[in-house]
Amino acid sequence: MMDRRPAAASPDGDRSDRAVIGALLRFFVAVAVVGALALGTAVLAPTVLEDLGVDDTEFTVPDSVDTDSLPSPSSDPPPAGERNPSVTDPADPNESTYQTDVETVDSATVEDFVHAEVNDRRAEHGLEPLEWDGTVASVSRAHSYDMADREYFDHTNPDGQAPMDRFTDVDDYCRGYGENIAQTWVDRPVEDPGTGDTVQHQTAEGLATGLVNQWMNSTPHRQAILEEGNTPAWDRGGVGVYIADDGSVYASHNFCVEW
């Protein structure tokens, strides 16, 4: 019988409280793989630098937009796959958007870029690409929206549902199921967890790269993507992104092994 319990506790110190300056919003990037896996962790999400009251000599939020420093608009992403499957999560919010000085960042485009970039990272390690699954993506998107709407950040929602529970409520063809979640911001300066550099996601393509970098710079998230450790060989996956009105971004990338 498959073990559907969420993953075990995170490494020492990962979930410990940290003092912050001012009104810093703290979130965690976490992975929990349900079914064939028994691992999980949490790492700090990018820090919103302008919320920290950092000294002006270290960081400055400009009063006006320097158009010469703006990134190029997103290219056209390779379409991930079916966006209107026959079975969807009733709580799926569909597309969400946020207007920056560069473009309208659309959640569906971000999802396409994330899916493509994850498969690029897998190809670099000799792995086959994940097939896009529209139903898995719909369940992922509903969870991302729910985290934003009910103001929590976890694999288990306030009703006690874990990732596999949420999926089986909608459909039931995965014998192994996994989930990476992330939180960041669009159009606000944040610290890149991999390099420590200041970045500001103003395009769908840049936001997608930032999300994948968060996961690839955390060992358990990377293991889930690259099927390392105890991770099974995934058949398919789906990405669900929700962009809130305040620019906060919630992303869920779910993986499936079919029966």
From TrEMBL:
Region (Disordered): 59-99
Name of one Pfam family that matches: CAP
Keyword annotations: Membrane, Transmembrane, Transmembrane helix
Statement: the UniProt record of this protein carries the keyword Ribosomal protein: no
Bilayer-spanning residue ranges: 20-45
Sequence ranges of Low complexity compositional bias: 62-73
Taxonomic superkingdom: Archaea
Protein name, as recorded: CAP domain-containing protein
Species annotation: Natronorubrum aibiense
Species lineage: Archaea, Methanobacteriati, Methanobacteriota, Stenosarchaea group, Halobacteria
